[in-house]
Amino acid sequence: MQAIVLAAGEGTRMRPLSGSVPKPMLPVAEEPLVAHTARAAIEAGADELVLVVGYEADTVREYFGEEYAGIPVKYAIQEEQRGTADAVRAARDHIDGSFAVLNGDNLYDTAAVKRLLSNDPSVGTYRVDDPSNYGVISTEGDCVTGIVEKPDDPPTNLANTGAYVFPEEACDWLDVGESERGEFEITDVVERVISEYDVTAVEVKRWLDVGRPWELLKANEWKIAELERDVRGDVSEQAVLDGAVVVEEGATVKAGVTIEGPALIRSGASVGPNAYIRGTTLVDEEAKVGHSVEIKNSVLSPGATVGHLSYVGDSVLGRDVNFGAGTNVANLRHDDADIKFTVKGSRVSTDRRKFGVIAGDKAKTGINTSLTPGLKLSMGATTLPGEVVTRDK
Ligand code: TTP
Q1: Residue 308 appears among annotated catalytic residues
Q2: Where does the record place the Nucleotidyl transferase domain (predicted)?
Q3: What is the ipTM metric for this complex?
Q4: Which of 15, 23, 176 to mutate to test the pocket of ligand 1 (most atoms within 8 A of CB)?
Q5: Using one digit for the tens of pLDDT, what is the confidence trace for 4-36?
Q6: CA-to-CA distance for 343 and 84, rounded, in angstroms?
Q7: CA pseudo-torsion sign 344, 350, 353, 354
């Protein structure tokens, strides 16, 4: 079966991290986000991948090429993001037979995708405490009976996960009308399929919609924790690697370093001497962690550098970010309240007690900068030596 993976979006809520890298290509453990979705589909039995691309399409194409994990890859271009039904419509000419559709910015457990593909047609659901912010699926037994967007009075607590298997006939039903928010929504296609077919509700046991920066952190927490210990790089005899630590070939871990797994140190990265890495941490390609630096539960994108005597916790550093010596990230409030972050101009809760900073590509801090929890440094932002930063820059 073909898997159509929707990856045309920029990810405006993911700014500043999506400033130069489209959201589907942001790092999650050893691969970009969308590659995990693609792999779940392939491991579940998909035999062809159709990637719907648009924003920064070339970055996605370059990564996947014409073949990925042993199956052919095709591309459909969606020039303008006009909705999920419109995205599938862009892929229509490639479709041959029943087809799966997955959101390219969602992580799914592979077993669920397997069940989805073997129950044609089907919709993936995920049990949530408060479904009012999701598309909500109604069921009778295993059969889907309805789908409603963000209802005030949700009929069930089954959220729509954006994972479907449709019959080929659904290709004729993709020309849906425009919704109230001005998009062509796949939920309208789902409604039509429900009315014509018995559609199985498949419960997804683990699911993550990666829309905002702390969800990228969560995605890394999920995928890094699945790695098994594998040490191939140049590791000093005086370093301690504890648990599921992966050090790729071409990475360097110097004397006096302690790494508590799960952690992933990628090729070309350098850690230490005397650094401490813990939590679920990704030190991506060519990133540098200096002398006596502590990194906890964070993502350092390719080329990011954290200078000596610094602390970085629960944070994401974009590409080529440079934290000057003595930069300290605070990741916990005195009142223990959940930390807020500004998404598209509104303050929203991250639902995390521990959350540090999100630094856009090439942001630089002066020495001894202090950063308060939930801060955003935009791409290329700078701070002065000794600056105490309490507002987004
Ligand atoms: P969204 O999360 O709604 O959009 P986005 O990824 O661009 O993020 P933001 O809202 O922060 O700007 O999209 C869900 C998935 O569907 C995601 O994988 C992108 C994809 N998509 C398309 O491919 N084309 C579209 O027109 C839309 C609306 C989404």
Answers
A1: yes
A2: 3-221
A3: 0.95
A4: 23
A5: 999 998 899 999 999 989 999 999 999 999 999
A6: 22
A7: negative
Asked if 321 and 361 count as a contact pair (C-beta separation under 8 A), the reply is: yes
Output the CA torsion sign for 17, 18, 23, 27. Answer: negative
- The 3-state DSSP class for residue 277 equals strand
CATH number corresponding to 2-211: 3.90.550.10
Query: Is the CB of 213 within 6 Å of ligand 1?
Result: no
Question: Which amino acid does the sequence have at 192?
Answer: R
The confidence score (pLDDT) of residue 9 equals 86
The residue ranges of every structural domain in the chain are 2-211, 224-389
Considering the candidates 94, 291, 308, 334, report the single residue annotated as catalytic. 308
**pLDDT under 70: residue ranges of the chain:** none
Instruction: Name the packing angle between helices 57-64 and 33-43 (round to 10°).
Output: 50
- Establish whether residue 52 lines the binding site of ligand 1, counting it when its CB lies within 6 angstroms of any ligand atom: yes
* Binding site membership of 105 for ligand 1 (Cβ less than 6 Å): yes
* C-alpha span between 128 and 145 (Å, rounded): 18
Check: CB of residue 340 under 8 Å from CB of residue 350: yes
**Computed over its alpha carbons, how large is the radius of gyration of the chain?**
22
What was the pLDDT predicted at 17? Answer: 97
Going 69 to 72 to 77 to 82, the CA torsion angle's sign is negative
- Longest alpha-carbon distance in the chain: 66
Residue 309: its pLDDT value, please? 98
83 C-beta closer than 6 A to ligand 1:
yes
How far apart CA 369 and CA 354 sit, in angstroms, is 19
What pLDDT score does 142 carry?
95
- The rounded distance, in Å, linking the Cα atoms of 277 and 352 is 20
The architecture in CATH of the region 224-389 reads: 3 Solenoid (2.160)
Residue located nearest, by CA, to atom 15 of ligand 1 = 103
**High-pLDDT (> 90) share of the chain, %:** 97
Report pLDDT digits (tens) over 136-175: 999 999 999 999 988 899 999 999 999 999 999 999 999 9
Report long-range pairs for 118-122 (Cβ below 8 Å, ≥24 apart): 118/45, 119/165, 119/200, 119/202, 120/1, 120/165, 120/167, 121/164, 121/165, 121/166, 121/167, 121/170, 121/193, 121/197, 121/198, 121/199, 121/200, 122/164, 122/165, 122/199, 122/200, 122/201, 122/202
Work out whether the CA dihedral 361, 8, 217, 70 comes out positive or negative: negative
